[in-house]
Amino acid sequence: MSDSDKQQDLDTFPKLLQHNATRFANVPSIREKEYGIWQTWTWAEAAEEIKAFANGLATHGFGRGDKLFIIGSNRPRMYWAMCAAQSLGGIPVPTYQDAVVEELTYVVDHAEVKYAIAEDQEQVDKLLQVNELGASIEMIIYDDSRGLGDYDAEYIFSFENIQASGVEFCNKSPTFFEDQIALGSGDDVAVLLYTSGTTGQPKGVILSHAGLIFGSERVATLESLTEKDSVMAYLPMAWVVDHFLCYTLAYCAAYCVCCPENQDTLLQDKKEIGPSFHFTSPRVLEAQRTDILTRMEDAAGIKRKLFNYFIDHASRVGISIHSGEKVSLIDRLLYFLGEIYAYGPLRNNLGYSKTRITWTAGEAIGPDMFDFYRSIGINLKQVYGQTEAGPFLTAHQSGGVRSDTVGVPLADVDVKIDEHGEVIFRSPGAFREYYKDPEATRKSKNADGWILTGDAGLFDHDGQLKIIDRIKDVGTMSNGSLFAPKFIENKLKFFAHILEVVTFGDQRDRVTALINIDLVAVGSWAERRNIAYASYQDLASRPEVYSMVQESIEQVNIDLSRDESLANSQITRFVILHKELDADDGELTRTRKVRRRIIHERYAELIEALYNPEISRIQVETDVVFEDGRKGIISGNLKIRDVKIFQTTQKTG
């Protein structure tokens, strides 16, 4: 059989499953930690699980074109359900496990879902509420049976029950599963993923088997991924990155996907597994660094001084050493000692002891944060893409890693900058269309087939792509100066005590900011100084906290003053919000991206107060949704503080 014929045979994920179950029959496919014990399924065993479940679905009428709604944490059965649906010509529709009922109802209705699989009682309850609101889910399948013994709805089934009916069906129709897989083709819809909805209702992105396999093969080749590698499955299953890393790329490279016991044990589970290939978001990197610095503040004096010394040394020479550049013998020896006493133990504590590649994407990461991790020996690379790209367009190549870029285009992917400064692309991995939204599809693709990303960017002299900001967010100040909010916000989020920042300045004469403090970092800082507080709101209002945040902003202002194009973007006033920005309140997406339009609307009065020099305090009331679903109001009398700005240090003209 020729390579082209073989490739044609492996044009869907169920076909790749069959291939892996034969070629890598005894190779671990997926692991799950339960009750403290890791359980492993080989590719051959996973194929049998998927076959039984697919046949069971078929006995309940699931067929070509049907959607399988998936909600829950990263569990083997949830991933198996995806392949089972695809094997029958169906379409998996994963969603965010922390989504509220209203969000679920929109997706269920929009995707015309009739079948659903839920992880546990919590998710089943939400689906039942979705039906009460008028949806028509005809079948709900659950993985974890705890708490579901008394549920008597006729359309609720256990995963085991579906598999049992599938085994019985297979005895009568032994080739049905294989026959259904053979009917599939690369042009079939592989998955329906919904965007995060930063500007409105989420859009359903249709991705094909062939498109996702295209991207997976390029990444597997780029990073030399094989069946010997492993990844941690901990990102939301509805996010295209998790779908790519823990499903499509896993099937193409045949590596092992490891599911942690829960989010609370993730770090320990990661340390036990030591994944060779890892993906992490800037938000996680920020949280990890905050935790590191917070714990070191509580460490014994000599340990803290030793740690700080070696971290400072790594910041000076670490990247040069790992890039193969010339570094003095003394600096190399000191770095070697740092490897023994600081960097090695730190990587091990973070679960990177066996990790050879770490990718980050999803949100811009500050250069300082990026350099911090690379300087201590973590091979961190930036990649760039979006759901519509399926998902990656560019990646750092080994030997060409830089903190201010997101790498070069992947093989056979065309990326360019249009006349408006927007990044646009063409790729065999690109999405087909937005589900039931031809108008949005038309706006996203131009007449020549180029897809608009919505990001402002440029290529540097090395052909590496730089992302400046979202096109809609890049603005111009009243004096004509550039205003790039994300760039400023990322600089501030490098400080451990700052969790979130939203800056304002478009069409204004100066820049102002809303700040969220990091409760863990600032709480630890306050306790060491015997500063009492009762809540986030109480701590955020403390003058000592305001002074600490002000100092950080002024450090950023000094950096901005050194860049002539951004010197006018220095922050002049700020306020620390009385509550954390929250996805349940609509202020963030489920992937933790700021919904700027919502922020502008919700905090309009506060934003205007930031631009009124006569206002130094303002009373605000904000609608919130509590963890138990109740709605309420949080109010606060917020202090607005002025910040020092600095003269540009670069010559003009």
Question: Secondary structure elements and their pairing?
Answer:
Elements: H1 3-9, H2 13-23, E1 28-34, E2 37-42, H3 43-59, E3 67-71, H4 76-87, E4 91-95, H5 101-111, E5 115-118, H6 121-132, E6 139-142, E7 156-158, H7 159-172, H8 176-183, E8 189-194, E9 204-208, H9 209-222, E10 230-232, H10 240-253, E11 256-259, H11 266-273, E12 277-280, H12 282-297, H13 301-322, H14 329-349, E13 357-360, H15 367-375, E14 380-385, E15 392-395, E16 408-409, E17 414-417, E18 422-426, E19 433-434, H16 438-444, E20 451-459, E21 465-470, E22 475-476, E23 482-483, H17 485-493, E24 498-504, E25 511-517, H18 519-528, H19 536-540, H20 543-561, E26 571-576, H21 596-602, H22 604-610, E27 617-625, E28 631-642
Description:
The protein has 653 residues and is of the alpha/beta class. Among the domains are: 3-272, Rossmann fold (3-Layer(aba) Sandwich); 475-642, GMP Synthetase, Chain A, domain 3 (2-Layer Sandwich). The strands form seven sheets. Strands 4-3-5-6-7 form a five-stranded parallel β-sheet, with helices on both faces. Helix 9 (209-222) packs across helix 10 and helix 13 (301-322) crosses helix 14 (329-349). The longest helix is centred in the middle third of the chain and has 22 residues, at 301-322. It starts with a helix and ends in an 11-residue tail after the last strand. The model is unreliable at 1-6 (pLDDT under 50).
